[in-house]
């Protein structure tokens, strides 16, 4: 159902950090656009999917739509990438600290499946390929971000969210090798995820 008669939540990890990046005028436009999108969006019952919508998809969409009013698609996406890089910089630093643990690979092996509960089957079809002492591999054969943004004719924005994964995991740890060669957002049939164990 739509959310016209309910209080509209604002992401605390997205909006406060966005203000110094884009300035007051655009920020107010993004907030207004987000409220409009939120009010008219059909929300799923799954709370995890709702979290993704409120914390990432709809705020990002609102920012993109506002930028597209005065910029080309190419420039808007570049500015989105720059904004996301700043917005998620603390997450990148936090994950690097975690990645400095020598036995991080074994921790990841232990926790990976519970962590992926945040990506429920209603939004992502996950196919496991490997989880052993050498590598953790799985494919995501559907993507809630891509499916949602496609309904707003903004599927190209999905790749900017994918890039956040690359920022976080590419240099996260000397003990892990992040490998992803394909994503749905970039035109492939599925997203291939791999954390390879880098042995000394």
Observed structural traits:
200 residues; alpha+beta; 2 domains; 7 helices; globular; disordered N terminus
Short description:
Helix content is 53%, strand content 12%. It is an alpha+beta fold and 200 residues long. Strands 1-2-4-3 form a four-stranded antiparallel beta sheet, with helices on one face.
Tell me what the structure shows.
The chain is of the alpha+beta class and 200 residues long. The chain folds into two domains: 1-87; 98-200, no CATH class. Helix content is 53%, strand content 12%. It has seven helices and four strands. The chain has helices at residues 15-40, 47-68, 73-87, 89-99, 104-115, 144-151, 158-169; strands at 126-131, 135-140, 176-179, 191-197. Strands 1-2-4-3 form a four-stranded antiparallel beta sheet, covered by helices on one side. α1 (15-40) crosses α2 and α2 crosses α3 (73-87). The longest helix is centred in the first third of the chain and has 26 residues, at 15-40. The radius of gyration is 18 Å and the shape is globular. It starts with 14 loop residues before the first helix and ends with a strand. The relative contact order is 0.13. Mean pLDDT is 95; it is low at 1-5.
């Amino acid at each position: 159902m739509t959310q016209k008669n309910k209080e509209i939540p604002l992401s605390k990890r997205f909006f406060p950090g966005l203000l110094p990046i884009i300035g007051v005028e655009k920020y107010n436009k993004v907030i207004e656009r987000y409220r409009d999108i939120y009010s008219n969006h059909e929300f799923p019952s799954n709370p995890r999917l709702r979290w993704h919508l409120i914390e990432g998809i709809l705020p990002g969409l609102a920012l993109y739509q506002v930028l597209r009013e005065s910029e080309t698609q190419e420039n808007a996406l570049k500015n989105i990438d720059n904004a996301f890089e700043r917005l998620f910089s603390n997450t990148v630093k936090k994950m690097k600290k975690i990645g400095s643990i020598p036995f991080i690979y074994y921790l990841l092996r232990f926790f990976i499946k519970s962590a992926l509960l945040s990506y429920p089957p209603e939004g992502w079809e996950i196919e496991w390929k490997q989880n052993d002492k050498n590598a953790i591999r799985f494919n995501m054969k559907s993507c809630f971000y891509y499916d949602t943004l496609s309904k707003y004719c903004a599927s190209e924005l999905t790749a900017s969210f994918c890039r956040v994964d690359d920022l976080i995991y590419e240099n996260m740890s000397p003990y892990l090798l992040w490998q992803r060669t394909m994503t749905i957002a970039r035109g492939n049939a599925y997203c291939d995820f791999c954390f390879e164990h880098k042995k000394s």
